[in-house]
């Protein structure tokens, strides 16, 4: 995910620096640059106000696309604070002191062009509303959020990434009603919250689901029936036990990466042929039987070519009670296996 963020940042910067900005617009931006900030001539749509000890948001030039206000002391996001920045696409407010009460109702209403909103490491107790309808990424990690107001995501079908890790969300806060409207969501990060059950009502488009560091003990048998696109699933550092994983619960045709490290499993769970990476380290597993865990019957293995058979390439089993060597039947089943950590 970090590589994706760096890549997208480079694309944004490239589009700004390479764009043919009219001289009048560039000059107006430089002249209107707040004295507390920095406006590089080479990036005429970017305004840098980060690390300045600011307690309020300065008046921002009207042609600003990218505004950096991270690492300041801002507590309030007033309704009129960004009234001029109607073309804003990227707003970084990370590591300030903004509270939910400090986000005035119309503060983000004028930002109809906003695509990326970063409000990590603040003091929010609720997802701010109303949000710009065209938002594509919303990052709210490391706040104090315990509430997702019903309808807050209504009509936000462009939002593909929602990061709510390291907050105070409980089961009753994450429901079908609270997530309604996220018809284009791809990545949902709910790690490091207070969940005891698998969250309900997730968008059918969810591809990456991160639930590490919660207190989840079991997964309902039909949980993924409405989530056919899940390819990356992380449940590390939970309280999963063998009885909490129904036999075919991970029978997902698109799943590529399954992480169940630091739980209380004593057996390797069943998984489909599509899986490429399996993390089971730091559980209580004592042995691995290739015949039992192979997603294809042994009688069919001889007639299967590598690419049409089980696609497991990486298996991590360290931190369990397993002793080498790995049984030969594991290697017979998983012919694409390139790395085993034991």
UniProtKB/TrEMBL annotation:
One of its GO terms (cellular component) is extracellular space. The keyword Secreted applies. This is Keratocan. Keywords: Disulfide bond, Extracellular matrix, Glycoprotein, Leucine-rich repeat, Repeat, Secreted, Signal. Residues 1-18 form the signal peptide. It is found in: Secreted, Extracellular space, Extracellular matrix. Belongs to the small leucine-rich proteoglycan (SLRP) family. SLRP class II subfamily. Residues 32-66 form the LRRNT domain. It holds the Pfam family LRRNT. InterPro entries: Leu-rich_rpt, Leu-rich_rpt_typical-subtyp, LRR_dom_sf, LRRNT, SLRP.
């Amino acid at each position: 995910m970090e590589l994706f963020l760096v890549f997208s940042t480079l694309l944004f910067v490239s589009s700004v620096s390479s764009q043919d900005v009219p001289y009048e617009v560039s000059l107006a931006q430089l002249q209107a640059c707040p004295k507390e900030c920095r406006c590089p001539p080479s990036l005429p749509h970017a305004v840098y106000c980060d690390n300045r000890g600011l307690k309020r948001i300065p008046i921002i030039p009207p042609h600003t696309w990218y505004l950096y206000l991270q690492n300041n002391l801002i507590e309030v996001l007033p309704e009129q604070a960004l009234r001029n920045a109607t073309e804003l696409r990227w707003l970084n407010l990370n590591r300030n002191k903004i509270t939910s009460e400090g986000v005035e109702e119309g503060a983000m209403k004028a930002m109809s062009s906003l695509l990326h909103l970063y409000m990590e490491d603040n003091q929010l107790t609720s997802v701010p509303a109303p949000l710009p309808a065209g938002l594509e990424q919303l990052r709210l990690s490391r706040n104090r959020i315990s509430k997702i107001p019903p309808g807050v995501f209504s009509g936000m079908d462009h939002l593909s990434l929602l990061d709510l890790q390291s907050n105070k969300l409980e089961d009753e806060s994450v429901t079908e009603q609270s997530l309604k409207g996220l018809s284009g969501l791809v990545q949902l990060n709910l790690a490091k919250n207070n969940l005891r059950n698998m969250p309900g009502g997730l968008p059918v488009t969810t591809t990456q689901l991160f639930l590490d560091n919660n207190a989840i003990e079991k997964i309902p048998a039909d949980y993924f029936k409405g989530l056919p696109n899940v390819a990356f699933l992380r449940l590390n550092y939970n309280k999963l036990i063998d009885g909490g994983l129904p036999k075919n619960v991970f029978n997902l045709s698109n799943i590529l990466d399954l992480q169940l490290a630091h739980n209380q499993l004593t057996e390797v769970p069943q998984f489909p042929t599509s899986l490429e990476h399996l993390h089971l380290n730091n559980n209580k597993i004592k042995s691995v039987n290739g015949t039992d865990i192979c997603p294809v019957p042994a009688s069919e293995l001889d007639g299967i070519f590598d690419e049409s058979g089980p696609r497991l390439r990486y298996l991590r089993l360290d931190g369990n009670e397993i002793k080498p060597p790995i049984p030969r039947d594991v290697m017979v089943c998983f012919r694409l296996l390139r790395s085993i950590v034991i």
